[in-house]
Design brief:
Largest sheet: 10 strands, mixed
Helix content: 10-25%
Distance between the termini: 28 Å
Strand content: 35-45%
Number of helices: 3
Order of helices and strands: EEEHEHEEEEHEEEE
Length: 198
């Protein structure tokens, strides 16, 4: 049995519990001793972060060998076209090599909490939304992929890791799941509870 915490990391927050520069960290949201993030989410990105005190579970979630798919919603500059979507799905050549095939589709603007600060509509009057699912974890990969095909990312939200989804968690909220499964097998949530930092 393992315990997993699903947290909606807000914009401009580190995916760690301490920072010598005084920036916002996970300690501002969740006070559970001995837990660590399975992977990371950039300071300027938002969305799903998984945490646990089970080292083997963290390893299975975060290690690239397991290729857990990660799904993102990206608000990009300009109107995404089919040429860009096909390139993203096929794989694009970045400085560190060709990306693996991905699932890419244009979506309507999702119903999500506003970001603070909001994207300035005067500077970015023309935007569209992309759903992108990748199985790699390169540094700032989604941002580099969309920039490569001519549509820089303005806002990035991770909505799923494997079968775990952000669902209705708002920025700063988290929920707890108790998992029952043999080692190295898929985990099944036994129960979940949502909490918000008061």
């Amino acid at each position: 049995m393992s315990t997993l915490y699903l947290l909606h990391k807000p914009y401009r927050m580190l995916s760690q519990f301490t920072d010598k520069q005084g920036r916002a960290t996970l300690a501002n949201l969740i006070e559970v001793p001995g837990i660590y993030a399975a992977g990371r989410l950039d300071y300027d990105s938002e969305g799903l972060l998984l945490l646990s005190d089970d080292g083997s579970l963290i390893h299975r979630i975060a290690h690239p060998r397991h290729k857990l798919p990660k799904t993102y919603w990206a608000q990009v500059e300009g109107q995404l076209d089919n040429t860009a979507l096909r390139a993203l799905a096929k794989g694009v050549e970045l400085k560190d090599g060709l990306t693996q095939p991905a699932r890419a589709r244009r979506i309507e603007p999702p119903t999500i909490a506003p970001r603070d600060p909001m994207i300035d509509p005067r500077r970015h009057p023309d935007t569209s939304w992309l759903e992108l699912t990748i199985t790699e974890g390169r540094n700032r990969q989604v941002r580099r992929m969309t920039a490569h095909v001519g549509f820089p990312t303005l806002r990035l939200i991770r909505v799923a890791i494997g079968s775990w989804r952000l669902d209705n968690l708002r920025p700063g909220e988290w929920r707890k799941e108790t998992l029952h499964a043999p080692a190295n097998k898929a985990h099944r949530p036994a129960k979940a509870r949502t909490r918000k930092k008061s």
